[in-house]
Specification:
Blueprint (H helix, E strand, L loop, with lengths): L1 E5 L7 H15 L5 E4 L10 H11 L4 E7 L7 H8 L3 H4 L4 E7 L7 H13 L3 E2 L4 E3 L2 H4 L9 H16 L4
Parallel strand pairs: 1-2, 1-3, 3-4, 4-5, 4-6
Length: about 170
């Protein structure tokens, strides 16, 4: 099972739009992923909401797609808090991750994806090598709030196809 995590709690974010587009692309490939939005999720401490999310979505998943926006040269604290307040052995250890960075700037959250890679490696996850920075996301999103640029759509599809084939053993 694949789970997409939209790595911000900001309502109406570009991150959420990109995460939804990843979901739609996976659906077009015959895969129904889980979708986790951090909007409205209390990740400030380990609580019943997180335990329920673990049991229903996170623990059963073996692959995760993280869509991570750039916040002050890194990832949002809310995403780090999610990771910190889960049962790391049950949720993350030995599982696979795909990273996509999102920013309105020119680097596509490259630094944040490297920070997230370090965190996920500490959690004993296998991070796929093809980390996609999506720069100037606000210019790429069309009127329907999806990316329509053919080259960007092509590299997203290539990234997803590689991840679907990704084996660690």
């Amino acid at each position: 099972m694949i789970t997409i995590i939209s790595g911000t709690n900001r309502p109406g974010s570009n991150t959420g739009r990109i995460a939804a587009q990843y979901r739609d692309i996976l659906r077009s490939k015959g895969i129904e992923p889980n979708f986790v939005s951090l909007e409205g999720l209390d990740v400030s401490r380990r609580n019943q909401q997180i335990i329920d999310l673990e049991n229903t979505v996170l623990i059963p998943s073996d692959k995760f797609i993280f869509i991570a926006p750039e916040y002050n040269g890194s990832i949002p604290g809310v995403l780090k808090s999610l990771l910190d307040n889960t049962d790391i052995r049950k949720v993350w250890w030995g599982k696979k991750a795909l990273l996509t960075g999102v920013s309105t700037g020119r680097a596509g959250n490259l630094r944040g994806m490297e920070h997230l890679t370090g965190i996920l490696h500490y959690l004993r996850m296998h991070v796929h090598h093809n980390k996609l920075p999506i720069s100037q996301v606000d210019k790429f999103l069309g009127n329907n709030n999806t990316i329509t640029d053919p080259d960007t759509i092509r590299v997203i599809n290539e990234q997803i196809d590689e991840f679907l084939r990704y084996q660690t053993h």
